[in-house]
Structure formats: structure tokens, C-alpha cells
Write a structure and sequence with these properties.
Two copies of one chain form a homodimer. Chain A is α+β, with helices and mostly antiparallel strands. Chain A has two helices and seven strands, in the order E-E-H-E-E-E-E-E-H. At the A-B interface, strand 1, strand 2, strand 5, strand 7 and helix 2 of A face strand 1, strand 2, strand 5, strand 7 and helix 2 of B.
């Protein structure tokens, strides 16, 4: 079991977790974990979260099949946020979008030269499968 | 002024914001914003946050000089998390690290082929300056 003593959970026993795609570095979603969901993630190798609306633990993909295999977990400098790097099956968002952050509310939609490289690498990797 | 009606702030009037580097797609930090700090960010073009520990608005870089120029803001599918894409001056973390998420607590430290490309692109961009 992972030593969770450095993690600062909030008053509800939760810590926010940024979920990032391993292959593209794209940000997929922001979710919350409690101690039990972290343990389940480590034990099974698949991301488990705590749903604040449903007030229970859920395995990402349990209904959609869009599982997230955990590659690495990082803790931030003040111990109150996690970063999970994952291999995403299918899409991350329940809307059918790859990422939950598809709504641009300010500035230009991010299409840097790096993004074009991402898409290229993703296409190459997809063709390898 | 930006229409913030789609944003769901928590009971303290805050919304978490994932901060991502525009050039490398690296995740720099997780912070919190209130309505006023979002307005200040849009007005000035530089990231402003709400500090929960100091209970006040701060402009990122106001003491360190490590400002964050906002390139774009995204809202997630259920309206309760933001993603800010920024041009980071210097490093994001007060520890001197580029990112606040430098502590690997599980899995192997992420060094995908994409990361190597990031570093290459960053080096090329730095040399252009």
C-alpha cells in the first residue's frame, strides 16, 4: 500500500486529481479521490475516483468501457493536489469528447505546433496497433 | 467582461484551475480562482488566483517575477473546473521547479517519446529568443 501521509485531504477527505493522457500530454479531466479510491487504483492499476454527486467510489470506465490505466501519480509541492498520468481507452468525457475541457471560454483555441505533433504521434501509434 | 454564468463556483466562491504550459503541454500547477480573479486575468492578460491560505487575490509572479500570460481558458463539461493555458516566465513552482508536480509517488517517472520532443522544441524555442 502506498504511503499517503504526505497527502493533504480536504474536510471531506478528498483530494483533486488532474488526469493527463500519457501519449499526448493532453489534460483529460479533473476528478476527486479519497484514500480508498487511491488504494483501489494502486491495487488494480486502473483509475478509481470518488464521485461527489453520487457520494461513492467509481471505477472510470465501469459503464462506458473507457478505462484509464494508471502509469504514474505525482503529488504537488504543498501536498493538496494529485496528477495522474494514464493510458486512456476511448474518450475521457461522457459527452463523447476526448477531453472534458472542450469548451473554450477565452483566448484562441490552443493549436500550437506541439499539438500538431501530438496528433501526428497519436496517428502513428494508432496505426501501429 | 467574460460571461461567467456557466461556471459553477463552490460554497466558498472558488473554482479549481489546472494551469498548463502553452509550449510544452506540461501541467504546471493547480490553483483556485474566484470571479474577481477571473475578471482581473481577462483584463490584464496575466493569471490572477485566489489564495485560500492568505485569503486574498494574488497575481502569479508579483513577488517572484514568474508571471503567467494567459493564452486561453477552457471550462470542463460540468462547469466546475477550469483549464488555463499560459506562457510561463521562468518556473511555476516556489521551490524553483518548473512544475509543482515534481514528486513522483507511484509508477515510473513519465518520460515518453513525446516528452523528449517537448524538451527539443523548448530548447529550439529558447535559442530563437
Amino acid at each position: 500500500m502506498l504511503d499517503l501521509s504526505a497527502l493533504k485531504f480536504d474536510q471531506n477527505g478528498l483530494i483533486p486529481v488532474i488526469v493527463q493522457d500519457f501519449s499526448t500530454n493532453e489534460i483529460l479531466m479533473l476528478a476527486y479521490m479519497n484514500k480508498e479510491s487511491i488504494d483501489l487504483t494502486i491495487e488494480t492499476g486502473y483509475m478509481h475516483y470518488f464521485s461527489r454527486s453520487r457520494d461513492k467510489i467509481w471505477k472510470k470506465g465501469e459503464t462506458s468501457g473507457n478505462f484509464q490505466k494508471v502509469k504514474a501519480l505525482y503529488l504537488d509541492c504543498d501536498g493538496d493536489a494529485l496528477l495522474a498520468v494514464v493510458e486512456q481507452t476511448g474518450v475521457a468525457c461522457h459527452t463523447g469528447n476526448k477531453t472534458c475541457f472542450f469548451t473554450n471560454i477565452f483566448g484562441e483555441d490552443k493549436k500550437s505546433e506541439v499539438d500538431i505533433l501530438f496528433k501526428l504521434i497519436e496517428t502513428i501509434n494508432d496505426r501501429k496497433k
